[in-house]
Every structure is written in structure tokens, then in C-alpha cells.
Amino acid sequence: MELLAPLLITYTAVRIIANRGRWADVAYIIVLTYLSTVYTYAVIPLAVPYLLAIYAIRRGKLANYAGFGSALSFTGVIIMTAYANSPHLLALGFVMATLAPAVLLPALGDRGSLEGLFRYLLISSISSSLLISGLSLRSAWPEIAELLIMLAIMTELGVAPIYIWVVDVYGRSSATGLALLASLPKLAAAYALIAIRPAVPAPIPVVLGALSMLIGNLGALTSRELNKILAYSSVLHGGFAVFIYPVNPPLSLAIMLADALGKMSLFYYADGGSAKWASLVIVMNQIGIPPALGFWPKLLIIIAAVEAWGWAAGAYLLANIVMSVPYYIRVFQTIPEGVAKFAFLSAVIVLALGFVPDFWIRYILSL
């Protein structure tokens, strides 16, 4: 994409001059989405959480930079789209997409979030190193390379066996910065599965995905802190994404798209409250109850699993969905009441996408 570099430079210059120019963030993401439709129309639904993230940090000194972090992360996704055949640019896109939102974690400047950021940076450096090593070894030692790439993406997704960092980072950080960290990097990691397509033996992601679902549910059911409940639920949804990857990779992205919108909203709500109806909509999204957006990926994942492995696989997935209901009820009861434009906007978007799945699901499944 010849226009990407000058567009990014122009946007960065305007953003620095404007300082608080959220309008520049919105315009940049929209223009980049339009230009990227030459590669795939899937960038249209993918742009939604990045646009919403511009307003996802409620307060703190870094609140006005949420759009900047979101725009840079979306740029990383587009780089992975446009330069899928270039290993070094794939690695650059992955690093940009996963790291840019993370630096906003200490939005409030609290010690816990700063500690969480340093811990995440360590994990991110490990996953990036694994990815770069895998991409560089693809021609020489393909089997080892594919495993390294898959491990890098799974590390970023926070699934077994390297899942505990999610609980550690989320548990010590403020909800303010987690609105971005818990959503955009994981969505970008799921997109990396589609862009890179690591060819690993199917039993590896299936077993680790199934284990992650169980760990996520058991951890969330036995946790009392909201941040840790949502951390374990991230492990659960990452497990869904990894489990279905060998059968239908685009569904991995679809489930993380729904989870990204949900996690972003719930951490925003936890920081300052929400109307009860909006909290209910987002909780329904996370469980997978219609007509919320999250219903469709889980339904399609169950159907794909049954077709591939039989009814036992579908029953296991359904059991994990049912297991999530009790702790999401606690999440709903824990969210304080409040009024914010973002709360209404995110709930409306989740409902709208749930009512018109054809707007987004066919583009995602075409990848």
C-alpha cells in the first residue's frame, strides 16, 4: 500500500499539532479502512472496535491519547493485511497492533497499572521474539517455525499454557487502561492467526484451547475481584479462538471481535458506571445470548465443531458457555450505575451488529 507511509506521517503530524484531536483519529481510521478494502472488506467490521476505542479511556492524563494508540494498533493490522508475504513487515505489524494500546495501561498513573505495564511488556517481548524467530525459520525448519509462530500468538491471546500473565496484569491494573489492553491486542493477535496461518498439528490448538476454556471458567467462578473475573473470561474466549482454529480460522477472529467489544465496554463500565440496560446487553454479548453480537460466533463455532468432531465437541463448548453464566451475573451485579455516552454507544453497537450479522460475519468468514 503506497499511501500508507505518507498517510501515517500526515496523521501523526496533525495529531501532534492538534494534541486533543480525536477527530483526526476518527478520520484516519475511516480513511485507512476505505483504502484497505482493496485487500478485504473484513477491515470494515474490524475497524469498529478501533473507532470505539478512541473514547474508551474515561479519565487520566493519557485519556486523550486513546485514539492515537488505537490508530497505531489499527495500522499494525493493516500492515499485516497489505504485506502478508513480507515476514519483517508482518512482524512489524504484529508488534504495532499489540503494543500500541498497551502503553496506555497506566492512564491514571497508579503504581499497580505501571507494574502491570512492565509485566505486559515482558510478555509482549517474548511473544514478539517467538514470532520473529518463527517467521525467519519458516524456510529452513518449517515445523519448528510454525510451532514458534503459534506459541507467539497464543502467548498474546493469553491461553494455556501461558495464561497466568493475564490474571496477574489485569488483577493489579486499573480498569481505566484495561479497556484498551484487554481488547485491541487480543483482537490483533486473533487477526495474526488469519494473516500468518501457522500450520501446526490440529491436536495442539484443540487440546490447549479446550484446556483454556476450562481454566478460564474455573478461575472466573472462584474469583471475587471484577478484574480477575474478566481476566479469566479472556482466557476462556482465547480458548474458543484457539480451539476452532484448525477447523475454521476466521471464526477465531469472529469470537475475538465480539470479545474485544465486550471487554472494552465492561472495563469502561467498571471504571465509572453504566446504565443497567447497557451492562445487561454487554453481559449478554459475553455469554453469547441473542440478539447480542456474541451469540453468532459461538453458534457458528459449535456448528463447526460438531461437523468436524461430533456432538461431544459441541456439548463441551455448550457446557463452557453455560458455566460462564453465574460469574457474568456477578459481573452485571458488580457494575455500578452511571450515565456516559460511551456506555450507550457501545451497547447500541453490540445490539446493532447482533441484529444484522450479515453486515460483518460474511466479511470475516471470507478471510
From TrEMBL:
Transmembrane region(s): 28-55, 62-83, 89-108, 120-141, 147-166, 178-196, 202-222, 229-247, 308-330, 342-365
Domain NADH:quinone oxidoreductase/Mrp antiporter transmembrane: 135-270
Predominant cellular place of this UniProt entry's protein: membrane
Pfam families assigned: Proton_antipo_M
Ribosomal protein recorded as keyword: no
Subcellular location: Membrane
GO CC aspect terms: membrane
Membrane-topology annotation of the record: Multi-pass membrane protein
Reaction catalyzed: a ubiquinone + NADH + 5 H(+)(in) = a ubiquinol + NAD(+) + 4 H(+)(out)
GO MF term (any one): NADH dehydrogenase (ubiquinone) activity
Keywords: Electron transport, Membrane, NAD, Respiratory chain, Translocase, Transmembrane, Transmembrane helix, Transport, Ubiquinone
Record protein name field: NADH-ubiquinone oxidoreductase
Protein's organism: Pyrobaculum aerophilum
